[in-house]
Known about the structure:
This protein has 245 residues and is mainly α. 56% of the residues lie in helices and 9% in strands.
Amino acid sequence: MSADLSLLESTMGYRFQNRALLERALTHKSHRFERPAAEPETHADNEQLEYLGDSVLGFLVSEQLVRLHPAMSEGGLSKRKAHLVSAQRLFEAAEELGLGQYLRLGRGEEMSGGRSKRALLADALEALIAAMYLDGGMEEARRFILEHVIAGALEEGAGGDVRVNDHKSALQETSQRLKLPAPRYSIVKEQGPEHSKIFTIEVRVGREVSSRAEGFSKKSAGQKAAQLALEQLSRIEEQASKSAP
């Protein structure tokens, strides 16, 4: 294994009871094919887990979309789901987890840049979801998907054009440019059942700017609060420019 798996578990916020499941989720078929004499159970590849993870992901994303948009048409829900489970979205989530450094690859795949290939990383993330589901149950899989796969993207966009915008970074840069204190984030409230908890995050920039927002994850709530704070800063800048001589 290329990196300490305990670091990945820490990033995921979950420790596996059965470490073999985690190792299998990270094992590409190229690794197994180059080790025909190895024990099959220990070195099985992640293709079956990828198959299961795709179904678990699809179900849980559909569930959250229905909870969030109870009046939306089937077509609208399908369009949003297609984005949230797309290879590109999974690739982005896998990169945020640093998943590539933990993969088991064969020599040929390693030399061809397999650790950064979009399809390979997206497949590994689906396998990881299945491994978590088998090891910890549906609740852990749901939490992981909400926090690490679809956070932010779940609630943005009125149609199918759903994009993740890094408002927190933009707020940090704007605060520096205006010579204001760095943004400070705090959790104001957590409510709802564990499988569908809603977080309220507050962000403050100095004494003048303060905003709150809700989300199905701390990450999405923080991004939305940052977006509101950016709008406040924009208005302050506009007023300052009008009053300037």
